[in-house]
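Appendix B, example 12.
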Amino acid sequence: MRHFIVDSPSLFNGILVCNRRNQLKKAVPINSIAGVELATTDTPGICKVVVQDQSTKSALSWDRFVRLKAASEAITQNAGSEWTILDVGGFDGALALFLPDYDIDLIDPASSGASLLQGLAGSLSYDAVTAIDALEHVAPQERDRALQELARIARKLIVLNYPCRETTEAQKIVLEATNNPLVREHVEWELPDTDNVVALMQGLGFSTKVTPHASLAIWLGQYLTLNLAPEAAQEMNRYLIDHHSDEPFSTPLYHLIVCSRANSGSSQAVQGCKVA
């Protein structure tokens, strides 16, 4: 399992690529995917995602693959080809493997070294902003503020994805078996309340569409294998991606929320969205 943070830039293949380090500011128990690099931008703490090998998305774990695939499809269905995207909490930039033709920047404490709540991005500075499995890892008392910050940055579209509250009992089983720190936050902080998220985003001037997706039953077995028998997980993940990425479900794993701004581009759109 590889971890990295952004440090000083070095020249690689003609671009400035952020150095990776084994010592983390914040340990994240996720494999960073090959095929993407994070390049420096004019704003320290925000990196540009550079796709070098799109085929590596098949090496993702099944859970990452299905949520990034769903988010990317929501973007392509709503976004123009020239849209700019800020990937909030995107870790290694794997979302770009599904959107190789888009201009994508990234901010994540574990990889770019900065947090959304630092307010580094300008108001209405990106056409679309994504937060894929990020909101549940924001402390509950800061979640409204994080959503307000997303709304401040996004000119037109916000795409959210997180495990839905129907998964809570399964999350507790996985935590007991694995002691995974990310799942611990799911359990101890509680997962986001979609009704509250929708109400807040609508209050900020966005229309919202909620889509439950992915199979909780598949995730339970897949995630336990990934954590307890990682040597067996690679082949299993590849099989699940090839054959069960769009599996029907009785209980959904995720909520995908697509938020479209009314009157996008208006200077009035950010009123009331300033982070305190």
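The CA atoms of residues 175 and 184 lie 6 Å apart. The first strand starts at residue 9 and ends at 12.
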